[in-house]
Amino acid sequence: MIRDLQENLCLVLFSDLASPSMDTLTVDGCNFLPAVDHLISHYSDGYLDVYGNNGDDVALKVRSTFSYGKHLLLPCITRMHDSGDLDDSGIELMTNKNVSKIGSVDSHIVFKNLMAMDRLFFEHKWSLQLEQGLFASEGYLVDTGNYPKKIEDLSSHSILGYGETFDQDTYRILNWHLIDQYKLEPSMLISSPSVIIAAVEANLGIGPVIYDHEKFGYDKLFRIIPEVSGPPVTLDFAVRRKLSGKLREMVENLEILLLSEIERMGLKIAFVGFNKMAGKKL
Amino acid sequence: MISNLRNFIIFAEEGLKSLLIPVSRFIEEMRDLESDLGHKLIIVIDYTRIVLTPFGSSFISHAKKSLRALEDSIVTSNLFNTCDFDQHLAIGIARDSITTWAVNCLKNFNKMHPGLRLSIIADDELSDSMLRHSTIIFWCSEAGLQNFDKIWYVEYKYGLYASEAYVQQHGEPSLNSLDQHKIIAYSGYDNNASITNWHLTNNYNLPPLRASIFAQSRDLIVKMISEGLGIGSTCEKQEVYYGYKALRRVLKVIEGPVLRSYFMIRSGVNANVYCNVILFDKLFRGFFKRHGINVIECG
Q1: What is the pLDDT confidence band of residue A52, given thresholds at 50, 70 and 90?
Q2: Helix B54-74 and helix B2-14: axis angle, to 10°?
Q3: Is B112 in the same domain as B39?
Q4: In 10 A of CB A155, how many CB atoms?
Q5: Which of A10, A26, A91, B169 is deepest in the core (most CB within 10 A)?
Q6: ipTM of the modeled complex
Q7: Between residues 126 and 145 of chain B, which touch chain A (CB distance below 8 Å)?
């Protein structure tokens, strides 16, 4: 894609085409970047017109996953609305999991695991990491009458797994219990993380769930074999590098509310450039 | 092979930094691939500078096609067919439905049918994967789906709704005042998006409306309405489908479109699979019956 673009423009945008990034951007690439940003903004704003916006309105577009959009961002959006911050502007909560090849450039804020492409257009400000373990509902444990105590015991249980991705990164984060040292055999495959937790709640089996699920409005679930844990789910908070004054103000308001909501929930964030565990700047 | 192809495509399109494996392993993988192909794909200048050969550049599109074919075969053979086919069932359904009402239909499903392995293919849109792998699809598709037979449907009657608190704060909306309210709309891309946004189409005897709050999920739209963010379009009995407190219908004289969700079965399934399909048919019918929702037979 970049090679074609360079040929069309007769410009060398990256010094190393094998590793296109901000670090390998040439002077011509730097000069071209604002134009790309403008083109993408213009393109992505188009669909709002389809739904009735006249193009003069300001609409903040926030991309997240369905679960965290619903349980973390929506309360903050409601507070923005209640305080009048949305009186003369709009907002869109983008939770569709099918993101285009050009990443999240159709949004102003990203609150999810950043794609490599996103790093070109977004400033990564901080991250929230949520630890994962295996969980089951009380109903499931009562029904089966068999509380697993060690990994071998899980062979007689219904194990839930993520069933539709060939993105290595996503697969390893969500199906950590099916690979490497655990290698559990799934009896139910589900193609959406938000459905996995709903299925665990509905007594359908044991599945990978974040420790802090109750803080996100889910039922109390029971941790199975506490020494079994998976990689953390990472939610990166990132902001489009170039925003108009009004959008910048809305972004800042939403970020303050989100940080406050995260603090209220007792979750810890890691700022970019800071050591999360030590709380010191690296 | 899959890993080699996948990493080749990642490298070719996004560069070394996007690889999730060490460069040394990537080079080894490429050497394996080159050995299979009989052509050089990459030239290693050093561990930070690796470039594609002309053959490598021309191989990208072939690599993508090959990867897709391999992945498809794995989905079919490993994920979905590790047990006897009649002991497996894949259901395709909207994510908004399965995270809300449909998952409750499945409560205790494993207890009742411990030998049946289930795959839930949930998406915001009717995906290729859903069409390829599902035995049952529950979806709003008036035109029907190729290779699927419509068995029955339920209707969603759309109207305009607000929360009680919203109406108390802003007053009962009228046709004349409607354009002064915050309007919530759907911004997903599925085949029913325009129907869900019927209130923005200047039809249905409504004045021209402009939305300012958008969500890509019908569940989130109902949640936004219930949180008092504005007036939006949803269906009757939304409290049954989404599990929130019942919303207040506003402008009752305005009747929106009626959407139908069809229970569809893959054409020509064998008798064993059909037995499993019937389990779901009963579960879903039972749910709708309990909540006073009519199930209408097709044909």
Answers
A1: very low
A2: 130
A3: no
A4: 10
A5: A91
A6: 0.76
A7: 127, 129
